[in-house]
Amino acid sequence: MKRKKKTLMILITGMFLLTAAGILGGIKIYRVHKAHQCGIVLAFDDYNAQSWEEHFDLFDQYDAKVTFFVNCSEPTDFCYHAVERGHEIGFHTINHVDLKTASADEVYAQAIAPIEVFREKGFELTSFAYPFGSYNEELNELLLQHYKVLRGAYHYELVGKHQMRNGFVDSLPIDNVKYSSDEEFEKRIDEILAELDENTGAIVGLYSHAIGDGDWCVSEKRLEYVLKRAHEMGIQFYTFKELQEN
């Protein structure tokens, strides 16, 4: 009887150890996969709440989480709705001010003081996009004391995930005005996705403003092309904050 109990205990212990090893092995494999998975940080600037919120379901359809760099003095209903859907709220100054030409007091009022206002209402602002893509090294040094990542606005740049945790990164506009036709837009997106797919763990930033047919918008057709093609290729969509935390 004692021998049977001992054998049973050995079997139970063995099964437990095998299960635990399987779980830990699975976690390790998942972490390695995530570390090697390339991705896109997709963002929208300014404040186009209705346009953005109308497309939450489209983002969900392709499992895309995005960052909204907002111009506002405090969190709005849109900010709460966006976070509830898994997106990030980043900051873009209160009044879309060119910080390179602003006084020190104005830089503080527009880009730094709102951090505490948002924090008091449940938002930790860690990502900042320069209005007009206008910055200098002095601004970078100052704002990196308050934000983890600062984003530019003009250039295509493949970076490693570690570069998204702290510092300045650039981003490529995908506004309608930048591309003369859908064909030109799709060709450029295909080139970017192909390069991403060839570079383990690489990240690229893309951004627009509103979603629609205006110049400083990305059309719904073009936006869906980005979302669909990336999804088909297994390319992940990240928020800036998500990459800061991983």
Overview features:
single chain; alpha/beta; TIM Barrel; 7-stranded mixed β-sheet; 12 strands; 47% helix
Beta-strand level of the residues, as a percent range? 15-25%
The share of residues in helices is: 40-55%
Largest sheet: 7 strands, mixed
Q: H/E order of the elements?
A: HEHHEHEHEHEEEEHEEEHEH
CATH superfamily: Glycoside hydrolase/deacetylase
Q: Outline, from the CA principal axes?
A: globular
SSE layout and pairing:
Elements: H1 2-36, E1 39-46, H2 49-53, H3 56-61, E2 67-70, H4 77-84, E3 88-91, H5 104-120, E4 127-129, H6 137-143, E5 149-151, E6 158-160, E7 167-169, E8 172-173, H7 182-198, E9 202-208, E10 210-211, E11 217-218, H8 220-233, E12 236-238, H9 240-245
Parallel strand pairs: 1-2, 1-9, 1-12, 2-3, 4-5, 5-7, 8-9, 10-11
Antiparallel strand pairs: 6-9
Question: Would you give an account of this structure?
Answer:
This protein is α/β, with parallel strands linked by helices and 246 residues long. The protein has one domain (37-245): TIM Barrel (Alpha-Beta Barrel). Helices cover 47% and strands 18% of the residues. The chain has helices spanning 2-36, 49-53, 56-61, 77-84, 104-120, 137-143, 182-198, 220-233, 240-245, and strands at residues 39-46, 67-70, 88-91, 127-129, 149-151, 158-160, 167-169, 172-173, 202-208, 210-211, 217-218, 236-238. Strands 1, 2, 3, 6, 8, 9 and 12 form a seven-stranded mixed β-sheet that branches. It has a three-stranded parallel β-sheet with strand order 4-5-7. Helix 4 (77-84) links the parallel strand 2 and strand 3. Helix 7 (182-198) packs parallel to helix 8. The longest helix has 35 residues, at 2-36. The chain is globular. Mean pLDDT is 90; it is low at 17-33.
